[in-house]
Automatic annotation (TrEMBL):
The chain holds residues 584 to 874 of 874 of the full protein. It comes from the Bacteria. Residues 10-37 form a coiled coil. This is Diguanylate cyclase (GGDEF) domain-containing protein. Residues 24-277 form the EAL domain.
Length: 291
């Protein structure tokens, strides 16, 4: 127990708990003005069609470049925003900014789809449909190219109003993606309850898909469910060529991950799209085509 470890270690533990609390408190205060100070940014991660061997979409990932702590991960600041009642403001900024920037991307074979994440807390607040509609109207971004990504893995409270919101988004032409599928509290029932367009297979399944028959069987089943229901399946967190080879063999439609591209700044994304004319980067084509 803590006492046996000595009073010094108890104090260190208290100090580090206190430091974590202080950091959260500091971030909560700073988040209020972050947008106005221009500290928020978007990182862009390409999504690749394995059948077409080209980039067919991008996901917008929120970043906060804090003046003292540097670039912060959404996993740190989104929960703080949620608890402080600031996630709606943050989300409205992300929607507007992502659509404004994506509308200006170079078009190659076909315009890219844009994935934007929304938080369950924002969904529960009831303003998501209005916020999406306002951003579409303000930016002129085509609703058919927007994919709203919702994670079923944490606290997505199924309710008539949630189902109504999803229906309203689809009526607007917006696509719906179930994010982190297979992780946490996400369930197959989500697929029967809501008309989902895209399932994003959590990267936990990808980690050993090339080494272990069990995750491979699970991936194969999700790919099968996808094709039976007309749902696109995106494999998240693809890091190695052998994972990609397995996914292609299973008939998985889309992939996203560090192997294909890390999240990029907008100029880097534009350069990548221009260099590859929207196709897989030269380094990837041989490997993927050979697989
Ligand atoms: P997500 O929507 O599942 O996004 C994918 C996350 O996986 C991103 O982390 C991305 O950088 C990371 N990733 C992509 N490929 C790989 C890979 O090959 N290996 C590994 N290890 N990681 C990979 P990021 O940007 O830190 O975002 C984390 C989560 O934060 C997102 O998970 C999403 O749930 C949430 N998030 C991001 N932006 C927003 C936002 O604007 N609003 C809300 N509500 N949530 C957001
Ligand atoms: Mg991260
Ligand atoms: Mg996502
Ligand atoms: Mg995910």
């Amino acid at each position: 127990c803590a006492r046996q470890a000595g009073p010094g270690s108890v104090r260190r533990w208290e100090v580090s708990l206190g430091a974590a609390r202080d950091r959260r408190e500091r971030l909560r205060e700073d988040l209020v003005g972050a947008r106005a100070r221009g500290e928020l940014a978007i990182a862009w991660q390409p999504i690749v069609s394995l059948a077409e061997q080209r980039v067919t979409g991008v996901e917008a990932l929120a970043r906060w470049v804090h003046p003292v702590f540097g670039e912060l991960e959404p996993e740190e600041f989104i929960p703080i925003a949620e608890r402080a009642g600031l996630v709606g403001d943050l989300q409205r900024w992300v929607l507007h900014e992502a659509m404004t920037q994506a509308a200006a991307l170079p078009e190659h074979d076909q315009p890219l789809r844009l994935g934007v994440n929304v938080s369950p807390v924002h969904l529960a607040s009831g303003t998501v449909v209005g916020d999406v509609a306002a951003a579409l109207a303000a930016t002129g971004f085509p609703a058919q190219r927007l994919v709203v990504e919702v994670t079923g893995s944490t606290g997505l409270v199924d309710s008539p109003s949630l189902a109504a919101d999803f229906a309203a988004l689809r009526l607007m032409g917006v696509h719906l993606a179930l994010d982190d599928f297979g992780a946490g509290a996400s369930s197959l029932e989500h697929l029967t309850r809501w008309a989902v367009d895209v399932v994003k297979l959590d990267r936990a399944f990808l980690a050993r898909v090339d080494k272990d028959a069990r995750p491979r069987a699970l991936c194969a089943s999700v790919v099968g469910i996808g094709s039976a229901l007309g749902i696109d399946v995106v494999a998240e967190g693809v890091e190695t060529p052998s994972q990609l080879t397995v996914l292609r063999a299973l008939g998985c439609g889309f992939a996203q991950g560090f192997l294909l591209s890390r999240p990029l700044t907008l100029p880097a994304l534009v350069a990548r799209l221009d260099a590859g004319a929207g196709h897989l980067w030269p380094g990837q084509v041989g490997r993927v085509g050979a697989g």
